[in-house]
Amino acid sequence: DYNIVRPKGYTVSFHANPEMEKHHFGQTHPMKPWRLTLTKSLVFAYGMPFAMDNFVTRAATYEELKSFHAADYLDYLATAPPEDQPQDIDSADREIKFNLGGSDCPLFHGLYDYCSMSGGTSLDAARKIVNRQSDIAIAWGGGLHHAKRSEASGFCYINDIVLAILQCLRHFPRVLYIDIDVHHGDGVEEAFFSTDRVMTCSFHKYQPDVFFPGTGGLDDNGPKSEHNPGAHHSINVPLNDGITDEQYAWLFESIIGKINQVFRPSVIALQCGADSLAGDRLGRFNLQVQGHGACVAFCKKFNIPMIIFGGGGYTPRNVARAWAYETSIAIGCDTKIPDQIPAHTPWREHFVHDTLFPTLEQILGEPRANRNSAKRLQDIVQHVHEQLRFVEH
Ligand code: TV1
Ligand code: CA
Ligand code: ZN
Predict the structure, then answer these.
(1) Is the ipTM value over 0.85, yes or no?
(2) How far is 312 from 325, CA to CA, in rounded Å?
(3) What CATH number did the domain enclosing 174 receive?
(4) Number of domains in the chain
(5) Which residues constitute the domain of residue 154?
(6) What pLDDT digit, counting tens, does each position of 204-223 carry?
(7) Would you call 146 a catalytic residue per the annotation?
(8) N or C end of the chain, less CB within 10 A?
(9) d(CA 33, CA 160)
């Protein structure tokens, strides 16, 4: 019998701003904010809100955004005219300077609202963690890991993850950032490149000049100077097409298990970009909902306060499946969750296969060729373990 109950002595909070989901990047743009609506429809249909504290979050203020971003960038973001309006020469210059207005980071209607809502959602989650009011705080509207201090990049304008980690650093000594989006978490890595209070670890498809953003090689482990505290505190796990659940779980557990031992984080910030799933419009991996979720389950076992962010994810029905399942893992009802998607789920017509855990064959027809050899994965783990010998806390 499936009956969701609140976990005892354990609080999970769910942070979302429904206004954020109504924004549009443009007809053909892969980033679809309504995937958050689809996610919530599954979370609701399975009855999960009964087991969590649910918050409708406010937008982040200008001052809050300024804890990471430059004022001139924020000012332009707040006033930039949407693309379909006439522009002056100056604004074209600023768009080049801030990387705004291209096809990846378009200037759409309500852009500043969208960005400050995403930031507000992650900051609200961070506040529940630092006040000890939540054990796990979930912000699916965040996870926009490419944004820089003064620059938009890869569909990201405001780095909500950096804002949330900065908030945690005011109350906790060390934060471990983990990134399972198929893209390299370059913006978060760069923001904390020179500190030993944040360790970043990104798993991603790596093929410079072919796959965005092209950074995050195995040897990129932080400043090379020994006198820089950030040395050895950036961990990168570069992967090839077609990695499977089994391989990914082995890598994740070998690497994150070791990092947890040596770095002893006080908080975990986990970016759960769902573009690492099989069948993603932009992704290249063969991960299933179960394998993606196994990363969340493994982190939960450490019993360390955790913020869970969204991120990429370009096949909305699969994004919703993964994030709903991961919400159930946070609550602890994942082993009881029925595979059959409830009949009353709004938007149910989007779930072509009416199950939470479709098979690889259902998702892809023919799975993508796996280009990750066992030998290469062993070398990666060995390299990471060698890096971690320099880390002591
Ligand atoms: C408009 C319309 C924009 C169709 C962008 C795929 C589009 C892409 C589009 C696209 C697309 C990228 C680059 C090349 C950099 C450019 C949220 C030199 C079918 C976290 C961001 C990927 C991923 C950016 C974000 C990448 C995240 N890939 N169709 N754009 N230039 N940009 O390669 O990590 O998931 O693809
Ligand atoms: Ca990643
Ligand atoms: Zn991505």
Answers:
(1) yes
(2) 16
(3) 3.40.800.20
(4) 1
(5) 12-388
(6) 999 999 999 999 999 999 99
(7) yes
(8) N
(9) 15
